[in-house]
Design goal:
The chain is mainly β and 425 residues long. It is 3% helix and 43% strand. It is globular, with a radius of gyration of 22 Å.
Length: 425
């Protein structure tokens, strides 16, 4: 895991108010540091399903941040951001070269929940603003904190792209390894070369590929397989081969009075709503069936269009159960998707119940539409796989997000100069 010393961050921010009392480490990753922080959304314009990436020439106010503090008091919070390398480490250049304006700003736009069983405070922010503006392209880490940076609430990744090249990609029917023909998807990628990419371009160029919203299996730091006069080719590259997985399962909690698809039971008590998801089991080895999904994302809303989903959507306890006659011996099982910010930690690790013969887990979720799937993680390597739980199928419609970085030796940082999204089918 790439980490950043907060002492280094202090220097990078040129802080003048003594924000730190100690030196500790902060990963440049999407992380929540307080359990009361829930439903962190970071998206572009009015599209909650979009990636947090905006063009350098048209970025002002286009990123929307929304999050809830359960049982919050409406305290004013603060935020800042830092520039990162293509490999999500802190950039070594001074802040004045990648940001203008203040070093931090206040998060004072909040509202208390209305007519909900679980009380929370919803915060919203549209940025960048003139008070704090990124100056260059690349990876950024948004940091939300309380009185000082020792009081971290959460961090989120976002990106700014300065399009100077074109990326194209295809998913051929047959990968190089024919034994993976029906189970895996291989990407063949081309990146155009133009006059902007001068010098030892191949050495200073890096490609990252993500499958859906995942970072755990991202292919990062890729070098081209072949270099042609006018483009880079990433073909026959083992790191561009991904498990095909399966379509995500889905459920909808936007209306607590309607038992929609995959909801087994809905209960209400004086404290909250509680929902049981229909029992899941392995789909591996079964006939593939296609249906629409939102590629593992979540869409928070309430069915009543007259209500404000940001402050009138309630929270509910959602119970998951995965049928398994015996526990896994070498793997742990997790719920995967934006439902848990694509993380794998104790909050979404499933526990085996010998009495019920299966794995269970409960998550507190805001009303809306959710995609999810069960996956396993090897206890020794940490590698996440869908082979045992969903199976892998070439037919699956996955979304692949491609980012092309160029380390500009004159400027001393990784520019993000290409970005595209392709569907596998």
């Amino acid at each position: 895991m790439k980490k950043l010393s907060l002492l280094v961050l202090l220097m990078a921010l040129h802080a003048t108010m003594g924000l730190f009392a100690q030196d500790f480490e902060l990963p440049c990753d999407n992380l929540n540091y307080k359990p009361e922080v829930q439903t962190v959304l970071l998206f572009v314009d009015d599209n909650p399903l979009s990636d947090p990436i905006v063009p350098l020439e048209d970025m002002m106010g286009r990123l929307t941040l929304s999050f809830d503090i359960i049982d919050g008091q409406g305290d004013v919070l603060n935020y800042t951001f830092i520039h990162c390398t293509h490999f999500w480490q802190p950039t070594e250049i001074q802040r004045i070269k990648y940001a203008s304006g203040y070093e931090s700003d206040r998060l004072d736009n909040f509202a208390f929940s209305r007519n909900t069983l679980i009380d929370y405070v919803n915060y919203q922010l549209k940025f960048p603003t003139e008070d704090m503006t990124p100056l260059i392209s690349g990876n950024y880490l948004l940091i939300v904190y309380g009185d000082d940076l020792n009081d971290l609430y959460f961090t989120r990744r976002f990106m700014i792209v300065d399009e100077k090249t074109h990326i194209s990609a295809t998913v051929p029917r047959y990968p190089d390894d024919l034994s993976l023909t029906d189970t895996h998807q291989q990407l063949d990628v081309k990146v155009s070369i133009n006059s902007y990419l001068t010098g030892n371009t191949q050495q200073y160029s890096f490609l990252t590929i993500r499958q859906n919203g995942r970072w755990d299996n991202a292919a990062e730091d890729l070098q081209p397989t072949y270099v042609y006069p006018d483009y880079f080719s990433y073909e026959h590259h083992p790191e561009t081969v991904f498990e095909g997985t399966y379509q995500f399962m889905r459920f909808n909690t936007s209306d607590f009075h309607f038992q929609s698809e995959n909801l087994a039971h809905i209960r209400q008590n004086d404290l909250s709503y509680e929902i049981d998801i229909a029992t899941c089991e392995s789909r591996a080895g079964k006939a593939y069936a296609t249906y629409d999904d939102i590629h593992g994302e979540k869409f928070v809303y309430v069915a009543d269009e007259t209500m404000d989903s940001f402050i009138e959507a309630d929270y509910c306890l959602v119970n998951f159960f995965y049928k398994s006659e015996a526990p896994l011996t070498h793997e742990d099982m997790y719920i995967m998707g934006a439902i848990n910010d694509w993380r794998f930690d104790e909050s979404n690790r499933m526990t085996y119940d010998y009495r019920l013969h299966g794995y269970s887990c409960s998550l507190m979720l805001k009303q809306g539409l959710y995609n999810f799937m069960m996956v396993t993680a090897d206890r020794n390597t940490g590698k996440v796989s869908t082979e045992l739980t969903t199976g892998n199928y070439w037919d699956t419609n996955n979304v692949y997000k491609l980012y092309f970085y160029y380390f500009n030796t004159n400027k001393g940082y990784d520019e993000l100069i290409g970005y595209t999204v392709v569907n596998s089918h």
